[in-house]
Amino acid sequence: MLVVNCSPMLFVALSRVIKFSLQNFARNIWLSIVTITIVVLTLFSVTSLVFMNAVLEQAIKLVESRVDVSVYFKPSVTQEQVYAVQTNVESLAYVDDVTYVSKSDALEKLRRQYNDSPLILDSIKELDDNPLGDTLIVSTIETADYQNVLDVLKATPQYAVLIDRTSFDDNTFIIEKLERISKQITTIGWGITLFFALISILVIVNTIRIAIYTHRDEIGIMKLVGASNTFVRGPFVGEAVLYAVLGSCITFGLSYLAAHVSDPYIVGLLGRTDFTLTGFLRINFLKVFGAELLGIVLISVLSTWLALSRYLRV
What φ, ψ does residue 74 adopt, rounded to 5°? Predict the structure, then answer.
């Protein structure tokens, strides 16, 4: 029975809050537009930071995928001996994959590589035997473990005598450079975001204060006749939430537009990759925009609470 009686009252109170919120928004339309613009700048700076970190993370993964150790065996080494080394290397906990390349495949690759050099091709044809040996291409889970693979091979005498040479395509410097850039961008990005967040608080506080000043007599009368603080706060909190929601929606649209425009350049920068910013946004939609919406609503409500505090002491 109590629920039935309270429900219409709750509905009426909620409808009044929404009505007054929209009225306050419309009465100060230009100030509302400025406030929403600041909210959009705050949220878009966060989204841009997420974009840059996602691209840099993808670039680091691509560089890491191209790092490997090539182990070249002497031409006299048999396949059984190579397989024995391969089995041993694959058993190492930090090794991700070991690819075997036969001497015939290596020679065919050499021919394709120098297909436009007749002199080198003629020299290869003059050879009676294949001068190349078998090759193992080793990939590890972490780039720091490549040196460990080389150390194991050198420290094992029965394997060391079979190996002609090793080649380590070390891109550690590039990876470390990208990681440093990522950290610097993150630091700068959060600094910019914090700056806009503080401006958002100041603008929202002043916007709400103007609305409160306009309705100061009404607030005083409501307090004198026994209106609760929650009832008085309602329309102004609703107005602040409206700023947050509209700002989030605009940021959402601008972010997808920016991602769509940037995708061709991202693909050109990273080369062959399935990564796109629009795809990234689709996968992480709730994670990115949900967190942004929640954050800006909290900032807006907090700002409104601060602005109202002095006017509720009657």
Answer: -65, 145
Give the separation between CA 130 and CA 126, rounded to whole angstroms. 10
| Residue 41: strand pairing partners | none
Q: Which fold has domain 68-169?
A: Alpha-Beta Plaits (3.30.70)
Q: E strands along 29-151, which residues?
A: 69-73, 95-101, 135-140
Task: Select from 279, 253, 281, 282 the least CA-distant residue to 267.
Answer: 279
Q: What six digits make up the tokens of 211?
A: 């609305």
State the residue for tokens 């309602």.
234
Identify how many contiguous H helices and E strands the chain contains and give both numbers.
13, 4
226: left (phi over 0), alpha (psi -120 to 50) or beta: left
Q: What is the pLDDT of residues 71-96, one digit of tens each?
A: 888 888 888 888 888 888 888 888 88
> Where do the structural domains in the chain lie, given as residue ranges?
16-63+174-312, 68-169
The per-residue pLDDT for range 227-279, each reduced to its tens digit, is 666 666 777 778 788 888 888 899 999 999 998 898 888 877 776 677 888 88
How does pLDDT run across 115-136, given as a tens digit for each residue? 666 666 566 565 556 667 788 8
| Residue 177: alpha-carbon gap to chain centroid | 18
Listed in sequence order, the residues at least 6 apart from 138 whose beta carbon sits closer than 8 Å to its beta carbon are 68, 69, 70, 71, 89, 95, 97, 98, 99, 146, 149
- Residue pair 204/35 in contact (Cβ under 8 Å)? The answer is yes
Query: Token digits for 222?
Result: 């409501």
